[in-house]
Specification:
The complex is a heterodimer of chains A (494) and B (473). Chain A has a domain at 291-494. Chain A has 19 helices and two strands. The relative contact order of chain A is 0.10. Chain A is 75% helix and 3% strand. Chain A has a two-stranded antiparallel ribbon. With 473 residues, chain B is an all-alpha fold. Chain B contains 19 helices and four strands. Chain B has helices spanning 8-26, 31-52, 70-96, 103-120, 124-142, 149-180, 185-191, 199-213, 222-229, 232-255, 262-283, 290-309, 314-340, 357-360, 362-376, 382-396, 400-425, 439-454, 460-466, and strands spanning 58-61, 66-69, 342-343, 346-347. In chain B, helix 2 (31-52) runs parallel beside helix 4, helix 4 packs antiparallel against helix 5 (124-142) and helix 15 crosses helix 18 (439-454). The chains are: A mainly alpha (494), B mainly alpha (473). The A-B interface holds A 70-72, 74, 135, 138-140, 142-143, 145-146, 149-150, 153-154, 160-161, 164-165, 168-169, 172-173, 176-177, 179-180, 183-184, 186-187 and B 373, 378-380, 384, 388, 391-392, 395-396, 400, 403-404, 407-408, 410-411, 414-415, 418-419, 421-422, 425-426, 456, 459-460, 463-464.
């Protein structure tokens, strides 16, 4: 038995949280608490980089598999990674330390508890991405609700209670049907092991309902139109670090779920429901982009733009082509980086002015130039300017979509234009223009830690924009094998 | 001579009760002593029960009117342990209200004796005798705080309604006797002709009586009032212990003599289950009093336990027993928290009293948080697994409607659990509560919380223990 690297990744943040539990938070040792948490998450990041180095890119087999009996004859604790999941694990371990650094001023109250919640969240999210058993997956998938509910509810803004409830109940409602589906799969096939299920396949006569049950959960989590309404509320009320976690990682769980489970387990049903996904994705792209255009609140605007971006992701996944799925994954990674950065950018000005309304700002370019530059970069990345990672994803997705369905692709491309409109308009209204609000003159530019965080996010955004090879190499084989298996399955049904 | 050593635990318990009663009468101010002796008696009974059943698969005594098998021993041990936990944490509460009297532990012991008889019963008469023994003790326990109007009201209400349901139950028994000529389960099984539709009436009446005892909808009306009015420690006893016994009888009664009429009683159980799950979840939303809220939540939880019984399989029965076991432990923690909300010799039990608890009592709030999330069935806490086993058994019988309704009502139920968490964590803090809780209160809270938290690491233990229960051959 080799070193159980995935279990260590899952357990490390939990151990960190356990230590934090015994440190009483007060003014003096806020420092200690933060560094314990930061240290834990950085170790985890290093470990995940090590995982990426060890990762064999030439096979689509699951690697670093650990398989232990958990409940006799029922569930095995099985984890492993392939090219698809490893990137999400990296994203998680990369974003979490940044989150922890970012809570300099924003969280004064109960810092220890906040950090514990963030670390536990990290555990659950890594668990989601590497679990290879449906029940284990469900466990991690649902468990994430608890810390996120607390993060929004305890440290959130004015309407935090409403948002926290909405977030929790929406996602729980979506997920319970998935539980029914998982138990049904167990009943049909006698196993919940994903690898075995890939080999066995599921009888097509059950697939449609099972697909819908999984879809109900993933659609809420993605979120897809029309069940996206929890997201703007949750984002607006969550503290900055919470929004970052939510946008950067939580939303990716569903995209990952679509690839791993909906495509992998139910190919026949995916084929049938592809038009539905297309329709919902296109509506999401156009409709939420238009809504985003009208927002007064910066966080809400970015939240709606997230829904639109996730619309591209679902569109790309269900083109079921190499480029489409690759594009979706890159889009998710890129969105993870960029939306995290944008929420942090909003957090920066919010910490100084305590307002998220766009019309509070204007003309701050000369007052805080460094901020304006970085904000510019992320705005451009969000609208998919060539040279940023946003472009690569969107381009691949649209290319695949054009091959599959011309009309859908044309409408989706329109979404790109609206996307550019609302992002640039946001930037214009916040950064340029006349300086009307005289309070803005007291704003100070980015401090060191903020520069570090935003630069950390900017570097990969640009790097993968110019050179997406490392990402594509990692996912290529896994995706092509997935599509191969999918096509074989479909062909055998006809 | 029968194998008297097999019912030695019951004999020991009844002798102890008589001894304690006489002892208490003659020795003044002996409440603490009697309390302690009762606790020890319960533990000894656990040991005896545990010992006498090793190596025994199934033995019937007294012309087959008493059965000793794995199910009965398992349920007896749970009953005894639950009663033990109730006793150890109730003394400080009773002392505050100056009702720390010798009768309290003795009444608890006698109702436990009644439950043990119920659990072992293999005959309608024996079962009814046990039922009445436990009920009589429970009526008195409900009114134990007799100077409070609410407590007396609770006792009276419980007495009247319980008597009514006992009447229905007896009527059902007599109908069955009329059709089969016997009250013994084995004889009933032999005599049973599945075409005898009129027998269904008998089953229905008995089911109504039992549904009343476990407070399943639509026979739940007494529960909120009685739970609210009774002293909190007695409410704890109500929510945990009688349900185990009644559930065992329900299993035994439906699955031994009437398994052939499965098609007929299955619909009734499905209705009871769905109605309890949904009604319990919805009605709890409007409650401000924590004890009433717990009453509705326990109605909802019993719905899930019944859902396991609707399947007609051994897995279903096992899942139901696992559910009730895990539920009891969660409930124990919940009530330990409730008993800790004490300030200036006064107990607080409304939702608003929990406001901002997390600021002043972080550990208590954390336990409460875990318990509530577990009751709501959120993974990876123990409550999730309880629901998982039940729904696994249900879905294996293709009863999707029941499973989906059940899971959707967990979402509704999640709302009011979340609201409690919201009040604890998001609202403004109030005055501090006392911090000098007794050791046993802290002990039971930690047992419950740790169990809930780490259950997912060792989920097999309970399953292994329960998997030996195979009622259907």
């Amino acid at each position: 038995m080799n070193f159980p690297i995935l279990s260590s990744l899952i357990l490390l943040p939990l151990i960190g949280a356990f230590f934090l539990f015994f440190i009483r938070s007060n003014k003096e040792n806020n420092f200690t608490v933060k560094y314990v948490a930061l240290f834990t998450s950085l170790v985890n990041f290093v470990l995940s980089i090590y995982l990426w180095i060890l990762f064999d890119q030439t096979t689509s087999e699951f690697q670093f598999v650990e398989d232990r009996i958990w409940i006799q004859n029922l569930i095995n604790y099985k984890v492993g990674v392939d090219g698809i999941s490893i990137l999400f694990i990296l994203l998680t371990t990369f974003i979490t330390p940044l989150c922890i650094i970012s809570i300099n001023n924003s969280i004064k109250d109960r810092l220890t508890e906040f950090l514990i919640a963030v670390l536990i969240m990290e555990t659950f999210m890594i668990g989601v991405f590497c679990s290879l058993d449906l029940v284990v997956f469900y466990l991690f998938f649902e468990a994430g609700l608890i810390p996120m509910f607390l993060i929004i509810g305890i440290w959130g803004g004015a309407r935090r209670v409403y948002s926290a409830f909405k977030f929790f109940l929406y996602t729980l409602l979506g997920s319970v049907l998935m539980l029914v589906a998982i138990i049904t799969i167990y009943w049909i096939t006698g196993t919940t092991d994903v690898v075995k299920l890939y080999e066995l396949g599921i009888d097509p006569k059950y697939q449609n309902l099972l697909w819908l049950a999984f879809f109900s959960s993933f659609a809420v989590k993605t979120p897809m139109w029309p069940v996206h309404t929890w997201l703007p509320d949750a984002h607006v009320e969550a503290p900055t670090a919470g929004s970052v976690l939510l946008a950067a990682i939580l939303l990716k769980m569903a995209g990952y779920g679509f690839i791993r489970f909906s495509l992998g387990l139910f190919p026949a049903a995916s084929e049938i429901f592809t038009p539905l996904i297309y329709l919902l994705s296109v509506i999401a792209i156009i409709f939420t982009s238009l809504i985003a255009l009208m927002q007064e609140d910066m966080k809400k605007l970015i939240a709606y733009s997230s829904v639109a971006h996730m619309g591209f992701v679902t569109l790309g996944i269900f083109t079921i082509q190499q480029q489409g799925i690759e594009g979706s994954i890159i889009q998710m990674i890129s969105h993870g980086l960029v939306s995290a950065a944008l929420f942090l950018c909003v957090g920066v000005v919010y910490d100084r002015m305590h307002s998220r309304l766009i019309n509070t700002y204007g003309g701050i370019v000369s007052i805080i130039p460094k901020y304006s530059v970085l904000f510019m970069l992320f705005t451009l990345a969000a609208l998919g300017l060539p040279g940023t990672s946003g472009f690569v994803g969107e381009f691949l997705i649209l290319m695949a979509a054009f091959k599959d369905n011309f009309l859908v692709a044309v409408i989706a491309s329109l979404g790109v234009i609206i996307g550019a409109a609302y992002m640039l308009w946001l930037y214009k209204r916040v950064v340029f223009g006349k300086l009307i609000n005289s309070d803005l003159k007291q704003m100070v530019d980015l401090n060191k830690s903020e520069i570090v965080i935003l630069t950390c996010l900017a570097v990969p955004t640009l790097f993968f924009g110019f050179y997406p090879e490392p990402l594509i190499n990692t996912i290529e084989i896994s995706i092509s094998d997935l599509i191969k298996a999918y096509n074989i399955e479909i062909a055998s049904k006809i | 001579m029968e194998n008297l050593e097999l019912i030695f635990s019951e004999i020991f318990l009844s002798l102890s009760i008589m001894f304690l009663l006489i002892f208490g009468v003659f020795k003044k101010n002996s409440s603490t002593l009697i309390q302690n002796i009762s606790i020890i008696v319960l533990l000894i009974t656990v040991v005896i029960t545990f010992n006498e059943t090793i190596g025994i698969t199934e033995v019937k005594l007294f012309n087959g009117s008493i059965i000793i098998d794995y199910l009965s021993s398992f349920m007896k041990i749970i009953t005894l342990l639950a009663a033990f936990l109730v006793l150890i944490i109730s003394s400080s509460y009773l002392k505050t209200f100056k009702i720390f009297k010798i009768e309290y532990p003795i009444l608890i012991l006698s109702s436990v004796l009644g439950m043990m008889i119920m659990i072992s019963s293999y005959d309608l008469i024996v079962f009814y005798m046990g039922l009445e023994l436990q009920s009589l003790a429970l009526y008195v326990l409900a009114t134990f705080n007799r100077d409070q109007i609410k407590s007396s009201e609770a006792g009276l209400k419980y007495f009247v309604l319980s008597a009514l349901s006992s009447g229905l139950l007896l009527y059902g028994c007599s109908l069955i006797y009329g059709f089969t000529g016997s009250t013994n389960f084995d004889v009933i099984t032999d005599q049973l002709n599945s075409n005898e539709y009129t027998l269904t009436f008998g089953i229905v009446f008995i089911l109504v009586g039992l549904a009343f005892k476990i407070s399943a909808v639509p026979f739940h009306m007494w529960a909120p009032d009685v739970y609210e009015g009774s002293p909190t420690s007695v409410t704890l006893f109500f929510t945990m212990v009688p349900k185990i016994a009644a559930l065992t009888v329900l299993i035994r009664f439906l699955y031994v003599p009437f398994i052939n009429l499965f098609d007929q009683w299955q619909m009734i159980l499905i209705f009871l289950s769905i109605a309890s799950m949904v009604f319990g979840a919805i009605a709890a939303i409007g409650q401000r009093n924590l004890k009433r809220l717990i009453a509705y939540s326990s109605i909802s939880h019993i719905g899930y336990a019944i859902a396991g019984l609707t399947t007609g399989t051994n897995e279903g029965i096992q899942s139901s027993i696992i559910y009730i076991t895990i539920y009891i432990l969660m409930n124990l923690g919940l009530f330990s928290c409730l008993l800790m909300l004490k300030r200036n010799e006064n107990y607080y039990e409304t939702l608003d009293d929990l406001s901002g608890l997390s600021k002043n009592h972080p550990l208590l709030s954390l336990s409460l948080l875990l318990i509530l999330f577990s009751l709501a069935g959120i993974p990876p806490l123990a409550g999730f697994f309880a629901k998982f086993y039940v729904f696994k058994a249900v879905i294996e019988q293709s009863m999707y409607f029941l499973a989906i309704v059940g899971l959707l009502s967990t979402v509704i139920a999640a709302f009011y659990y979340l609201r409690i968490i919201k009040i604890i964590y998001f609202d403004k803090e109030k005055e501090k509560y006392d911090n000098d809780h007794g050791f046993w209160l802290k002990f039971s809270l930690s047992v419950s919380t740790v169990f809930i938290l780490i259950y997912f690491i060792f989920p097999s233990q309970i399953i292994d223990a329960v998997s030996k229960i195979n009622i259907i051959q």
